[in-house]
Amino acid sequence: MTEGELVSFNCRGCASADVVPVVNLGEQPCADLFPPAETSGPDPRWPLALWLCRACTLVQLGPVEAQIAEEPLAVESATSRAHAEASVKEILRDYPELLGGVVFEFGSPHGGSWLDHLSAAGSRLAGVGEQADLVIDVHGIVHEPQYGESLKLRADRLAPGGLLVMEFHHLLPLFVGNQFDTIRHGHWAYVSLRALRNLAAHHGLTVESVRQVEMYGGSLMVMLRHTEDAQPDPSVDVVLDDEDAAGIADEVQLGSLQEAAWHAAGALHAELIRHKVAGRTVLGYGAPSKAPVLLDLSKVTTDLLPFTVDLSPRKHGRRIPGGSMVPIRPIDELKAARPDVVLVLTWDIADEIVAQLEADGGWGATYLVPLPEPHERA
Ligand SMILES: [Zn+2]
User: Fold this and answer.
1) Looking at the domain assignment, is residue 20 inside a domain?
2) Are residues 83 and 177 in the same domain?
3) Is 83 within a domain?
4) Nearest CA among 371, 41, 7 for reference residue 174
5) For the ranges 43-52, 66-75, 187-196, 310-319, which has the lowest average pLDDT?
6) By C-alpha distance, which of 66, 57, 69, 75 is closest to 19?
7) For residue 170, what is the DSSP state?
């Protein structure tokens, strides 16, 4: 899209034409398509920008013409697997009427499925087209380009009296924590509770309760019901008030994220230069889909970060997409290289990573966490 070009674009949530651009991260490569390490690029790029709908307040990717291929190669983190198990226990404890009921899950390419745990607890999977007492969407819906239509599918699946549980990365910590690297092609919506509440009403759903969970740097688990069944509790207003105080439905406030992103990116570049000048080696940990935009905006290339490592064998021999060209290698190569500094690209599971690398005593490395501003992990 060039400046001045007329773009016809309607809100992905409510179809309103009253949508405005708020954050522009420039042209970025597909975040989840890791090319073989020897391919030189340049990788194809598409505009990456956030738009705000003034009608329903949904924050979303703007118009993207290209059909962007996804090739998820990640292995599920231990943090994610443990979270799924704990969530199922919690829900069945707090909603015992769901025990033994019918469940349906809208899946996510990130994994984190609840179905095995629910089956083990005696739930029955819904048949084709059958409505369910418990409908689950854990980090699924943002992969759907049309949020509103997808929300309707979830409402249609929900039996009268049933519970819809939706977990998603929350716009509030994204904004407050400067988590700009979670903005990526393929994640079409960046959802606040207010936006979800507004859109749910279009489909006869009401938010009943909400919990804040730590996944992916700050997520919400939201419980919804058909409006005639819902009895909202005070947790809903608490989160709505927090969102209002931060101004995440305000286009000027949201726009400040762009400056914060460029500032952190510049600071990361400066920090890596500082280590290089001091003769300290820096290597990366993780090759998440967050890495391309972070390294690209930070202008980090292999002279500052010779390689990164990842648990997923399917990423080995590949590289980070975009301008960084940073190759991805097995974890053992990081341990063998014993760098002075480990740049934690998967910062949302930093605890898991540091525990893993320090399990056999480590080698005295420091851990550099890139956001909200680069800092050494205590
Ligand atoms: Zn809208």
Assistant:
1) no
2) yes
3) yes
4) 371
5) 66-75
6) 57
7) B
